[in-house]
Amino acid sequence: MTQDPTKSQPVVERVKLWDPILRFFHWALVVCVVIAWYLGRFGPDIMTLHFYFGYAVIALLVLRVGLGLLGPPSARFSGLFHSPSVLVRYMKNMFARKPSYWPGHNPVGSLAAIALLLTLMLQVATGLFSDPDDYVNVGPFASYIDAATTRLVTGWHYYLSLVLLGLVGLHLLAIGFYKIWKHEDLVRPMITGWKEVVRSDQK
Description:
The chain has 203 residues and is mainly alpha-helical. The protein has helices spanning 20-42, 48-70, 84-93, 107-129, 147-180, 187-192, and strands at residues 12-16, 194-198. 19% of the residues are buried.
């Protein structure tokens, strides 16, 4: 059972939290998504590189699903789901000017992580079936659906890119909020793997 650090003043310890493979996934996904988004929005007109980075995102998402099902505890999908009571309790204390020391994704961060993963899955799925009517930048599976569905999917691929931009913006704002307001660095642990969390014997 995961300790809820909002219940009392926690005693913390420094632990090796984030697995190297999960950290690789995180930073590789950052690079591939940023480059694919930029190429999709600003060109060049022939989007071969955009497709390649999109395929890389698919491979990384497959890796993340594997980690979520079979990986270490900090990477398991079970750690992303919290009860409504824990979520409400966390949100009540979220604006306190002190670190949360949450062992893993906190309840709000978990919702953001789920939203990002689902949006990325939909984004790459629609990209595989998209066809912008230029007869060049055609998704590999576009021929398997009719023209009307292809236009719909292509539109969704564009709108999902805007949703993705918004989610990434919120993610960056959250990092700044935790760093400046709560005095908690969320970036360094995702680089080193080490994080201060509530002590494991506080059950």
